[in-house]
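Exercise: predict the fold of this chain.
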Amino acid sequence: MTFGGTSAIQAGTTEASLSTVGITPSAPKEHGCNTYSIPGASSLKAIAARGKVLGVLAASQGGSSSVHTAEGVRVGSTAAEVRQAYRGAQLTESYQGLASTNVILATDSAGQAIGFEFEGNSDASNHVDDSSTVRSIRAGTPDLARGFEVCSG
């Protein structure tokens, strides 16, 4: 995974472009998102809305995943490993109350982002503990990477 998605799937491209990675795109929905399994990457999903790719999501039910960022961070990595790997990027932390999660967001100079989701500590003033482990990774638009509900409207 990279800022903005993967090497083959990038936020901002057309939903039709997903055919280049073996996905048959659905008709764009007027409201909500289309979510696609990516062939050969069972823990990775592409997310698109209104004909545009928003990015990709990596999650694993088993606590870890072979999918990783270009910097080597994966589901199951610690917050300390995220901070070390992305020390050159702009990092922000936030608490997402509706989802009860904390997010460390790394943003690049082009405005694309990678969000690392952790179990929530319900206190936005507390940083994510260094030993907390990544539950999911979202790469794409900043809103998608932050975990905002981009598919509800």
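Check your answer against the key: The beta strands are 34-38, 41-49, 52-59, 90-96, 101-107, 113-119, 136-140.
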